[in-house]
Amino acid sequence: MEAVLDQLRTAIEAGEYAVGAKLPSEATLAAEYGVSRPVVREALRALQALGLTETLTGKGTFVTAAQATDNPRFGQYSARDLLEVRQHVEVPAAGYAATRRSDDDLEAIIGLVQRMEQEEDGTVWVALDSLFHIAVAHASGNPVFGKVIEEIRDALAHQSAFVNQVGGRRAASNAEHRGIVDAIARGDGHAAETAMTAHLGHVDDTLVDIVAKKTNQATPRRS
User: Fold this and answer.
1) Which pTM does this prediction carry?
2) What are the percentages of helix, strand and coil residues in the chain, rounded to 5?
3) Cα(161)–Cα(156) distance, integer angstroms
C-alpha cells in the first residue's frame, strides 16, 4: 500500500493527474500495479487523508489538490484536532489510570497489548489499538475521559491505519504501548503520563514525516 500511495502521490504532485482529473478505477490501478483492490482502496483512502483527492460514491476518485496538506484529515477531524484533544485527555488519563485502575482494568490493558504484539493482520491490529486507548481512558476512573476517546474512535482508527501502514510504526507503537502499561502496572502516574506524551509525540512526528515524504518506501513496477 505504501508503494502504491507513493506512486500515485508522486504522479499527482508532478501534474500527471491535474486538479479535477478522475483517477483510474480501483480495478485498473490494481492491474497496473499488480496488487489487490483492497491495497488500492487503502492507498486511495490515504490520498484523501492527505487532501489530494476526494472519493465520491458511485462516481470515482478525483484530484482536489496538487500538493498534500500539512494537516491530514481522518474522517471529520484533522490530525491537529486529534493531537490537541489527545494531549489534554489521554495524557492525564494515563496518569490517573496508574493510581486508580482496578485489577480488571490492568488485566484488560495487558491483554490488549499482548494481542497487539502477536497480531499480524493490520486491520485487526488497528482495531486493537483503538480498544487499547479506550481501555486506558476508562481505567482512569473518570468516565468523561473514556467518553471522549470513544467519540473520536473512528478518526483514531483511520489515523492509526494511516500512520502504521504508511509510516511503518507498528513495532514502535507496540513498544510504546508496553511502556505505558508497565508504568500503569507500577502505579507510577508521572511515568505513565510521560510514556503517553512520548507516544503521541512520535505519532505526530510520523505524520509530519509522511507529509514531507521522508518515509522510505519500495516502488512497485507498473505493468
Assistant:
1) 0.87
2) 70, 5, 25
3) 9
In the prediction, which pLDDT does 165 show?
83
Residue ranges with strand state E in the chain? 53-56, 60-63, 73-74, 77-78
Name the segment(s) of the chain with CATH classification 1.20.120.530. Answer: 75-211
Q: Give the C-alpha separation, 71 to 78, whole Å.
A: 6
d(CA 186, CA 9): 45
- Long-range contacts of residues 62-67, Cβ cutoff 8 Å, at least 24 apart: 62/20, 62/21, 62/22, 62/23, 63/12, 63/17, 63/18, 63/19, 63/20, 63/21, 63/22, 63/23, 64/19, 65/19, 66/12, 66/13, 66/15, 66/18, 66/19, 67/13
Q: Which residues pair with 54 in a beta bridge?
A: 62
pLDDT at 58: 86
Residue spans of the chain under pLDDT 70: 214-223
- For domain 2-63, the CATH architecture is Orthogonal Bundle (1.10)
75-211: CATH topology:
Four Helix Bundle (Hemerythrin (Met), subunit A) (1.20.120)
Nearest partner of 98 among 160, 1, 180, 10, judged by Cα: 180
- Give percent above pLDDT 90 in the chain: 83
Which amino acid is residue 19, in one-letter code?
V
Write out the residue limits of the CATH 1.10.10.10 domain(s) in the chain.
2-63
The string of pLDDT tens digits covering residues 172-198 is 999 999 999 999 999 999 999 999 999
